[in-house]
Design brief:
The chain is of the alpha/beta class. It is 33% helix and 24% strand. It has seven helices and eleven strands. The model has no long low-confidence stretch (mean pLDDT 93). Bound molecules: manganese (II) ion. The site of manganese (II) ion (MN) has 8 residues, from loops. One of its GO terms (cellular component) is extrinsic component of plasma membrane.
Length: 243
């Protein structure tokens, strides 16, 4: 097995420059050293479109492009950056993944998700999610100017039922029913997702099969644990000591 890295929920924004620095540190440390880095959504605290001309967006694109020249880079959309599209992918050398991505690695079946689709107890959130992910919504957004989109994104976030706060207590957790359903549907050994900001490794049994559920950590300035790592010598948390 090669070295595969999984991160999510960095919530990068111009307001949190230290997190952008830490992302850059991880990319520099791992470029060429890992086989692939999977970003499982909410890389950005908000993404209003691939045509965002801001220096912040440019900086992130440049960092990712440098990395993807040396290791594979994959991106799955989260609920904060669901407008990431093909232009961003081509400008960063990233491969966009579907909302459910199945990976076979070293004899394991691994399912990758952002994780918000598992939070099925929050029916209002799920309704908003369907609206935001519809082709009609994307087309309406594409007709708007960048500043109008910026304002709309803020409003939709207020309506989404997910608080502006990034604390786990303000984000609905997954339901066991939804976890069991995706595990059964795909016959997986391992589920890796983010979104809930409740990092943990859960052991469960679905239809007589042992399944592990890894919940990725959200990023904090002084938190060394930034993701998860699959490699031949074992599975472990991915750490990046704060400088
Ligand atoms: Mn999320």
């Amino acid at each position: 097995m090669s070295r595969l890295l999984f991160i999510s929920d960095l919530h990068l924004s111009p307001a949190r420059p230290r997190l952008l620095e830490r992302f850059g540190e991880l990319l520099e440390a791992e470029a060429g050293g890992c086989d692939a880095l999977y970003i499982l959504g909410d890389l950005f605290d908000a993404w209003i479109g691939d045509d965002d001309p801001s220096p912040f967006a440019d900086e992130v694109r440049g960092m990712m492009r440098a990395f993807s020249g040396r290791s594979h880079l994959f991106f799955q959309r989260g609920n904060r950056d669901f407008l990431v599209s093909e232009r961003f992918a081509s400008e960063t050398g990233t491969v966009l993944l579907e909302d459910e991505h199945l990976l076979r690695v070293g004899g394991l079946k691994v399912l990758l998700l952002h994780g918000d689709q598992l939070c099925t107890a929050d029916t209002e959130y799920q309704a908003v999610r369907r609206e935001l992910r519809s082709p009609g919504f994307r087309e309406r957004m594409e007709r708007l100017g960048i500043e109008e989109r910026r304002a709309l994104a803020a409003e939709f976030r207020r309506r989404s039922g997910e608080s502006q706060s990034l604390k786990p207590a303000d984000i609905t957790d997954v339901t066991q029913e939804a976890v069991a359903a995706v595990a059964r549907d795909h016959g997986i050994d391992l589920l890796i997702h983010g979104h809930t900001h409740r990092p943990a490794i859960h052991e469960l049994e679905v239809g007589g099969r042992r399944v592990q559920r890894v919940v990725l950590p959200d990023w904090r300035e002084s938190e060394p644990r930034v993701g998860f790592c699959l490699e031949a010598s074992g599975h472990r948390w991915l750490e990046l000591p704060p400088a």
